[in-house]
Design a protein that fits this description.
By secondary structure, the protein is mostly helical. It is 80% helix and 0% strand. The chain contains 16 helices and no strands. The model has no long low-confidence stretch (mean pLDDT 85).
């Protein structure tokens, strides 16, 4: 099969997944496994498990990074780009349209928008419960999560969250390096990325992370400031797309780029579209600077994911067998739970649950999602209708 045919196949399959993959990162990984591994045999089970493990290890949108990695394995770097575009563009287009309607028709005060804000409460609460069960199974990690919650509630800045993640990683290294070193040795994997390219991508990743805040401080350009904010948020998200919420909220709401109501309305809308939750950044960019801003924000927040997956593939076996790295990651993941609990209270709960009817709707939506196991898009639709009728 020629490269062109391979790339067209990647585009076709990834676009179909981008149009139909509801349910968040875990569901996306299930869709990928069914389509790419079981049906098309693009990769064996072990290699897919290795790729998923790598993307869970890295900061950034895990499901998008797996999709990029699958594309790279199938069609090289261009294949990775095509796979990303196919999976991401449907939700990008939908959220740009939503942001444009919000700005053009002034619908931010509509009742159904309030319904979407309540959906955000339910979705984040559900995400926290699942993550807490997996990431804080013992009292030490529960304590790390509590530390992260208290600190991020009392000092609400983007830099506080960064500091909490770094401190939690150090504590995790101290507490869990012996436990991590006793884990069984993982099998060796082979990925088609040269170490030279890996070094370049990692150098570029850290270079931008260090250089962009400096450039932003000395520049009055709105675009440089936006690029810095989105790039930094995309670089520091451990634990899945929901964790990007508090980072982006601290970057854009206190600075007046958009209101808290606009922020939460967009987050609710992001639950209604398929594809990665990171496209919430598309909505923010479109509110701030039109459709050009939406595309720019999408590029900025996903760029770290590209650089990290391409940069770490050649070194994955060395990293995951290092007990120091594994121990630190256990602490980082625990802190993510605390940061999410903090975000659940503020801004989500404080801005969305104002009256008894709000809490009643939230309780019904939570049962629909958690106990009745209804698809997220159904929960979003019911939330919007309930907001239109009752709020």
């Amino acid at each position: 099969m020629t490269k062109l045919k391979i790339w067209l196949e990647i585009l076709m399959v990834s676009t179909r997944l981008g149009l139909t993959s509801f349910g968040g990162p875990t569901a996306h990984l299930g869709y990928f496994h069914e389509e790419y591994i079981r049906r098309r045999k693009w990769m064996d089970e072990k290699s897919y498990a290795d790729l998923v493990a790598l993307c869970q290890f890295l900061p950034g949108p895990a499901s998008s990074q797996v999709g990029i990695g699958l594309g790279v394995m199938r069609g090289g770097i261009i294949g990775g780009i095509i796979s990303f575009l196919g999976f991401t563009l449907p939700s990008v287009i939908a959220l740009i349209i939503f942001a444009t309607a919000l700005q053009t028709f002034g619908i931010e005060d509509a009742g159904w928008i309030d319904g979407l804000k309540i959906v955000a409460v339910v979705v984040v609460a559900h995400a926290i419960l699942g993550m807490a069960k997996n990431l804080t199974p013992d009292i030490k990690r529960k304590t790390i999560a509590l530390f992260a919650l208290v600190v991020t509630l009392l000092w609400q800045t983007a830099y506080t969250q960064i500091a909490v993640i770094l401190i939690a990683g150090f504590i995790g290294y101290l507490l869990y390096r012996e436990k991590a070193s006793k884990d069984e040795k993982l099998n060796v994997s082979l990925f088609p990325i040269s170490k030279k390219l890996g070094y370049f991508c990692l150098a570029l990743f850290f270079g931008l992370l260090i250089f962009l805040p400096i450039l932003s401080n000395f520049s009055s350009s709105q675009w440089i400031t936006m690029f810095d904010s989105f790039y930094r948020s995309g670089s520091l998200v451990f634990g899945g797309g929901h964790v990007v919420l508090p980072l982006l909220e601290q970057e854009f709401v206190p600075t007046g780029w958009l209101s808290e109501q606009e922020f939460l309305a967009g987050y609710g809308a992001a639950q209604a579209v398929p594809g990665p939750l990171f496209t919430f950044a598309t909505y923010i960019g479109a509110v701030v600077a039109g459709w050009q801003g939406g595309l720019f924000a999408t590029f900025a927040i996903f760029l770290p994911a590209f650089l990290l997956i391409l940069g770490t593939l050649p070194f994955w076996d060395d990293l995951r067998s290092n007990p120091k790295i594994k121990g630190a990651l256990m602490g980082v993941n625990a802190s993510v739970v605390g940061i999410l609990f903090s975000a659940l209270y503020h801004p989500i709960w404080t801005s969305s649950i104002q009256e008894s009817i709000d809490f009643a709707i939230a309780a019904i939506l939570f049962c629909m999602l958690v106990y009745w196991k209804l698809p997220p898009w159904v929960v979003v639709l019911v939330g919007a209708i309930a907001g239109f009728l009752f709020l």
